[in-house]
Amino acid sequence: MDLKRMGNQTVVFANPPVILSSHSVVGPKEGQGPLGKTFSRVWKDQLNGEKSWEVAESKMLQEAMQGAISQAGVPKDHIDFMLAGDLLNQMISSNFAARQMALPLIGIYGACSTMALGMALGSMLIDGGFAQYVLVGVSSHHDTAERQFRSPTEQGTQRAMSAQWTVTGAGSVLLGRSGKGPRITSATLGRVIDFAEKDVNNMGSAMAPAVADTILNHFHDLQRKPEDYDLMASGDLGAVGLALAGEVLKQSGIDMGTGFTDCGVMIFDASQDVHAGASGCGCSSVVFAGEIMRRIKVGELKRVLLVGSGALHSPTSALQGESIPGIGHAVVIEA
Amino acid sequence: MDLKRMGNQTVVFANPPVILSSHSVVGPKEGQGPLGKTFSRVWKDQLNGEKSWEVAESKMLQEAMQGAISQAGVPKDHIDFMLAGDLLNQMISSNFAARQMALPLIGIYGACSTMALGMALGSMLIDGGFAQYVLVGVSSHHDTAERQFRSPTEQGTQRAMSAQWTVTGAGSVLLGRSGKGPRITSATLGRVIDFAEKDVNNMGSAMAPAVADTILNHFHDLQRKPEDYDLMASGDLGAVGLALAGEVLKQSGIDMGTGFTDCGVMIFDASQDVHAGASGCGCSSVVFAGEIMRRIKVGELKRVLLVGSGALHSPTSALQGESIPGIGHAVVIEA
To answer: Where does the chain cross the membrane (chains A, B) (predicted)?
Structure first.
């Protein structure tokens, strides 16, 4: 299957919505990583006093969303919609967080691409005139993901070198029609791409073609090239997938250069034994809410392309012999 | 917990999007029910030649979406976005259908409220100026749901009288900025409401307060009353939940009268042994795409309120002792 330019997948905002605030809450391992100091809060352990990992993940998402609201100083009842998603079956982290938030909920699912999908959709709701404020938040938790998707954590199964470590983290942004902050200027919504990768321990490879497809269409739609961006970050391909996405794009005539990296590569370092890097909805959301927003605010980055990447399979589809479809959703953030 | 009016949860469309076509595909039991003749296609069995129920469900959704496209006569590459969701873990029915459709995908999750959520969101994307055409489709399948949420079907577990029968069905509508057909004139997005119902065999009761909350806010926001609608259909509360929603609304001063019914009550009759009625994303989508659209087209119904209702729990949250949060999303359709 070759990558093809689809036509026009990109929407450009007439009045680009503002990122009024960003908040991130992570687990201890993420706090010990190279971006540790950029997160709003680091939990001391994976449970933070809750009775289960699942309850803890939902509370973490709630904390991130409340944090984004407080930081922006916007009264909660001025928020029109809450957009949220996560990896758990039937999205219980988001749904139970939404029960506490008491805001109109739009549940979204794009696996690890969900943060970018939420930022794209939230921007459309604001620029389309349907909302003044939209709260976007996503989460993942290493232990809820391990036991749902892989093996009981107590089993200590050896991990493949191409495997990625699911981040324990929740990130949130509050988007507004006006105010101070970087703006979301355009978004490219991805289509599902499947290059027949079946190895659930190599999801970076499964997602790489979809990320490449979205980037290719994004550049084509806006007549841009890699040099037009200070940073292009996928989230989360890991080291294996990042290299592969670069290779696929090169074959399509695009050299991504040195500005192309991945949130799943940034969040942990080599000493942390995560193999190919990190993954999970939480990963790109906390790297964006923390490090990327920090670099935009201090003036290091003027224009950023965030490409959320999702592996759209389930344990059931994998056991039934299906390959792993991927998706990439991109948003452009400008200082 | 009392129901409270939130402020303004309702968006009104300046140029109401048009429902250009609607398509429904159902299983044999649904075909034998009172609405059998209103569906676009009835499968002879639950597998339709596929190797698993999960693959069959995804194919059914694809068939419904392709059907909506063909019926409208719109070239597929003119469609800007595909909005889809289902009940399966990680929404594999939708994701694998989207792999075949090759359209930019926005994955949405609202359990059984997903069709109404998709119609609301799709209308915002069109009226907001981001799309000319949006394809919305959702599905559920009795056997994929039974083995994922309840017990192996082979076990033949006795069902509670308050339990609902998950519909095997997929419904789809193609929305357009202009053209012939009924229009979506407004939408009320719901917030999560939880009255502490814990019985997973009584989801109608768990969802009823959320439906009542959304209807209450809808009437308040638009200064309307039940008499302003020819039909108000929730989907899917079943008989137990429908009675309860009416009761909750009566306590809030609203008598819904005889125009209030439920898609889960309409689709099967007493002889079909479904106990409290039907449920599943597919139910309200095929009842809307079939019977309700038929009655609008022949001029029987001028203004309809469709209130999708979702139970936002998972087997994991239920096993952990959590109650079942509900949500209701409403759209108004006018001839």
So the answer is: 101-126
* pLDDT at B6 > cutoff 80: no
Contact B129 A128 (CB under 8 A): yes
With beta carbons under 8 A apart, name residues in chain B contacting A193. 99
How many CA atoms lie within 13 Å of B159's alpha carbon, on the beta-carbon side? Answer: 18
Rounded CA separation B245/B205 (Å): 8
Report the topology of domain B18-176.
Peroxisomal Thiolase; Chain A, domain 1 (3.40.47)
Distance from CA of A156 to the nearest CA of B (A): 22
Tens-place pLDDT, residues B134-151: 999 999 999 999 999 998
Measured between beta carbons, the chain A residues lying within 8 angstroms of B52 are 320
Cβ–Cβ contact B316 with A under 8 A: yes
* Of the candidates A103, A264, A170, the residue with the CA atom closest to the CA atom of residue B192: A103
Mean pLDDT, rounded, of chain B: 96
Residues 6 or more apart whose CB falls under 8 angstroms from that of A196 comprise A323
d(CA A180, CA B331): 34
A288 to chain B, minimum CA–CA distance in Å? 21
Q: What's the longest Cα–Cα distance across chain B? A: 53
- Whole-angstrom CA distances from B9 to A72, A303, B236 are 22, 34, 21
pLDDT for A2 beyond 60: no
A96 touches B: beta carbon within 8 Å: yes
pLDDT at B1 > cutoff 50 = no
Contacts of A318 in chain B (CB under 8 A): none
Q: Which two tokens stand for residue B9?
A: 């949860």
ipTM: 0.97
**Per-residue pLDDT averaged across A274-283, rounded?**
96
Predicted confidence (pLDDT) at residue A1 exceeds the cutoff of 60: no
Between residues 132 and 171 of chain B, which touch chain A (CB distance below 8 Å)? 148
Residue A57 burial (10 A CB sphere; 0-12, 13-18, 19+): buried
Instruction: Domain A182-334: give its CATH code.
Output: 3.40.47.40
Considering only CB atoms, which chain B residues are within 8 Å of A14? Answer: 129
| Alpha-carbon B89 to chain mean position | 18
- Distance, in Å, from the CA atom of A27 to the CA atom of B29, rounded to the nearest integer, reads 49
Cβ within 8 Å of B, A 63-92 = 77, 81, 85, 87-92
In total, the C-beta contacts within 8 angstroms joining chain A to chain B are 178
Residue B90 CA to residue A89 CA, distance in Å, equals 6
pLDDT, tens digit (0-9, with 9 covering 90-100), for A218-252: 999 999 999 999 999 999 999 999 999 999 999 99
Rg (CA), chain A: 18
Query: Which CATH superfamily hosts domain A15-176?
Result: Stage V sporulation protein AD (3.40.47.40)
Domain with CATH 3.40.47.40 in chain B: 18-176, 182-334
B313 touches chain A (CB under 8 A): yes
Cα A70 to Cα A84: distance, rounded to the nearest angstrom? 18
Residues of chain A with CATH 3.40.47.40: 15-176, 182-334
